[in-house]
Amino acid sequence: MNKKIYNFSAGPAMLPEEVLKKVKKNFLNWNNIGASIIEISHRSIEFNEIIKNSKKYLKELLNIPKEYVILFCQGGARGQFSAIPMNLLNKFNCADYINSGYWSYQAFLEAKKYCFPNNIYVREYINGKISISNMKKWLLHKNSDYIHYCPNETIEGISIYEEPNFKDKIVIGDFSSYLLSQKINIKKYDLIYASAQKNLGPSGITIVIIKKSLLEYKNSDIPSILNYKKNFLFQSMLNTPVTFSWYIISLVLKWVKKKGGIDYFEKINIKKSNLLYQKIDDSNFYINNIHSKNRSRMNITFQLKNKKLNDLFLKEANKFGLKFLKGHKIIGGFRASIYNAMPLSGVEKLVSFMIDFENKFK
Ligand SMILES: *Cc1c(COP(=O)(O)O)cnc(C)c1O
Asked: Where is this chain's protein located in or outside the cell (predicted)?
């Protein structure tokens, strides 16, 4: 039996072993410069190389067109919940917030501090399963400055795979647990952002990919650190960035590229998630209540029909080397976060554990 320990944490989450080994090996004396990467200036030639590479890899991997710029921001995705309305509210002083779950609703709550956003609830039930209504049916407002939504609700494990096609609307996406997991068409968006600690690297940095034209928006009275234009002009170094996280992100991006890019990960992510959902659907012992068209490939949530077994399931899973499967407290149950760094063997081991546990306790 596979003795390896697998970490299903939702974020910060597991990173590729290859990357961590490289970090370890180079930690005391990075590239033979006689210092650690965390001991040198963010403005040094050496660090500039890391910045250049991370932008280059992101552009290649995501096919980012020329009219976009990449910013590396601080304050997490939550910082963006504030930065977005502060920078992008315009003539209507109003925005559409699509509510598909916890994180998209948090973004709405933050926006309420700056305007009267529209809370647009898009969940519906099909055959008793949670699903997201088609974008055509979303009740958008004519007089709103932008629309904000979240294509992967990390806590509930709900994804929206449909691509946005809203005429004359600025479209913003919270891609925190989605970026690099599958192909996306950047052109469909005006701004996307992702905090790093799900699928990109350690916590500390948030990647913002924004259309250059949006940098010209007014709003000069907002805090400089949240100001997109300023961040662009200062090359994301208005203050001292989290150099260690940035460095690790550049290594993760290189690893993604080496493995075969997003095409490769999309295929394997479909395979991994299908394997787990198949196991859940094949039994009367485990339940997932998300409709197949909106099931996340990154965060797979499930419940035990017999909730009395919850603690035992976690305990046994732990013993078996399957860690951090506990679901978020707002929905309970279990969650297996299987980002790019999780190998197929981790999911296979989880599935074989679930089969054994079911046989023992059903
Ligand atoms: C984790 C997460 C956030 C919050 O990220 P922080 O970096 O902690 O602010 C926001 N949105 C989504 C979709 C997330 O998964």
From this structure: Cytoplasm
* Token pair of 28 as six digits: 């005391």
Grade residue 218 by pLDDT with cuts at 50, 70 and 90: low
The answer, as to whether pTM is greater than 0.90, is yes
CA of 275 to the centre of ligand 1 (A): 26
Judge whether 174 counts as a catalytic residue.
Answer: yes
What one-character DSSP code corresponds to residue 164? P
| Cα dist from 63 to 2, 59, 66, 181, whole Å | 37, 5, 9, 14
> pLDDT band at residue 1, thresholds of 50, 70 and 90?
low
CATH of segment(s) 261-361: 3.90.1150.10
Ligand 1 pocket check for 261: Cβ under 6 Å: no
| Contact by Cβ (8 Å): 199, 180 | yes
Residue spans per domain, the chain: 20-258, 261-361
Residues 6+ apart with CB under 8 A from 117: 85, 94, 95, 96, 97, 108, 111
Q: What pLDDT is attached to residue 5? A: 97
| CB 291 less than 6 A from any atom of ligand 1 | no
How close is the Cα of 131 to the center of ligand 1, in Å? 21
Task: Decide: 78 in ligand 1 pocket, CB within 6 A.
Answer: yes
Q: How many CB atoms lie within 10 A of CB 143?
A: 10
User: Could you give the percent of the chain with pLDDT greater than 90?
Assistant: 97
CATH class of 20-258: alpha beta
Q: For a pocket test of ligand 1, which of 176, 205, 297 has the largest count of ligand atoms closer than 8 A to its C-beta?
A: 176
**Known active-site residue 281:** no
**293 CA to centre of ligand 1 in angstroms:** 23
Can you tell me the mean pLDDT for 99-113? 98
Give the active site residue among 96, 145, 174, 190.
174
Q: What is the pLDDT of residues 82-102, one digit of tens each?
A: 999 999 999 999 999 999 999
